[in-house]
Each structure stands twice: as C-alpha cells, then as structure tokens.
Specification:
single chain; about 55 residues; mainly alpha; 3 helices; about 80% helix
C-alpha cells in the first residue's frame, strides 16, 4: 500500500510540475481551472504520504 501511495504521489507531483511549467497563472501562484485540481491532488497525496512516514 505504501508503495502504491508513493507512486500516486510521484505521478501527481510530475503532473503538477509539468502543468505549472507551461501555465503562467499556476506558475505565479494563481491557479487556473485545470491547475487547481492538479495541485490539490498533489497536496493531498503528499500529506497522506508524509502522515504515513510519521506513523512508522
């Protein structure tokens, strides 16, 4: 399960970084309609992954 969470977290990170590079609003911290859910998924998965690490 932890490996699956890590994989999803890394994919979300990659998707968010790729989008942010080509999107001016997202690159400046003002999320576009496409970027906001990408960022939120990345942040949620990052939080879950870090919580899992802390509970070990």
């Amino acid at each position: 399960m932890a490996d699956d969470l890590h994989t999803r977290y890394m994919r979300a990170s990659d998707a968010w970084r790729t989008h942010r590079k080509g999107c001016s609003p997202c690159g400046s911290g003002q999320y576009c309609p496409t970027g906001k859910p990408l960022y939120q998924r990345f942040a949620d998965l990052q939080d879950a992954y870090l919580r899992g690490l802390r509970s070990r």
